[in-house]
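WARN retry 2 of 3 for item q-0093 after timeout on previous attempt; input resubmitted unchanged.
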Amino acid sequence: MAESNGVKHRTSRNRNVTDTGDEMTSSLIQTKNNQVSYIDVETTKDCFTDDTCSEPEENPEKFRCDNCGKIFLKLAGVGMCGIVFGIALEKARVFEPKSIREQMVFENFIMLKMFLSAVVTGQLCMAILSIIPATKEKFEEASKGFVSCFSDRGILSSTVGPFVLGIGMSLCGACPGMVLPQVGAWVPNSVFTLLGALIGALTYGLLGSQLSAVTKPKFCIKHQQVHEKLNVPYAAISLPMAVVLGVVVFIIEWFWPYQKDLESLGRDTLLKSNVVTTIAWPPYFGGALVGLLQIPVILFVNDTIGGSSSYVTVVAQFFYTKGAQQMFPYFSRKRLGVANWWQVVYVTGAIVGGAISAASSDSFGIAKGVPVHMALLGGMVMIWGARFGSGCTSGHGLSGMGLLSWLSFIAVPFMFAGAVVTAFAMQATGALDTYVTSFGEVS
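OK item q-0093 returned
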């Protein structure tokens, strides 16, 4: 769950839009090919509409912060969320490359149980936020911010991108959000997966503008969310969907207990009285913990869980000159602003959380990693797919499906389809069961 997302705070700069004073207006633009498309124009500034800093996209050299204390507290809160995220993934054992790969050949269901549980809990939390008057506006801002990143995305990018992401997931046994707790728990060669992800972010960014221009749909989707299209409240659909998915998790667990999955990983199946030192939690408990994180993320930063765009923000720091930013506008939009940097803080917290969780159960390095070449290639490929599709397992899966996004409902099946096809192909060649131990041995 995650990634993800594109720049959430857009301006009416260079779009010839009349400022009516509203926070969000809907307008029409005339493209170079004389095609008319709907766009959403957000007139609020960065830093969560606090007006505490100048807009980095307008003039990054004069970026300043007039309320750093408030921003620091928000980022600190997001960092704590990242730590909890890392702990949940490590304790549920979903972060192990073997767990992810075996999921794609239907021999292990930890990932599916945790994924669906996170969606269920996230939807319940967001439904509550959408109903309570004090938090309704925050939820709506986060929801609009999420779908705004799909303004230049269509069916092509939402199928090809996730499919490519899935290929990378099976190769490296990770996803953009999963690799961070892998690094924290010292999974062999996980640092090479991280390096591959950064290389993928760099190479995609160099071609990002060209790719967006080529793949931009002729007509954008006017109603990005199911409940918006049906003109019903969000909770009217999200709550029944959460109940159905919850039943699915229960059925899977009934016929395939998580202890069976832990045995295939060689992990202790007994829950200790001390949950902190226990090496493995039930996957649905870890998923519920991740889903609960939607509440603080929405309240702190008017956003939803995601992580893949954080890699772009990191590599964008090398493009600090005016000339480089003009040549590569994709990096320029990702360099500054809390709307970009909160994900970096979040995923950094996930590394810390993975390390804390592994230390509590004395399980550093016990998970098997993938060979270096698969880690590098898989990391690069999965970020390419995530950015092309404008979301990862967290962005499209946890947040997109949770927010009832049409394109996310398309992206997630293609994401797993790419992973399943690749995993079965690897299994046929014997590559799927090739792992590296903490001592460098290949098994």
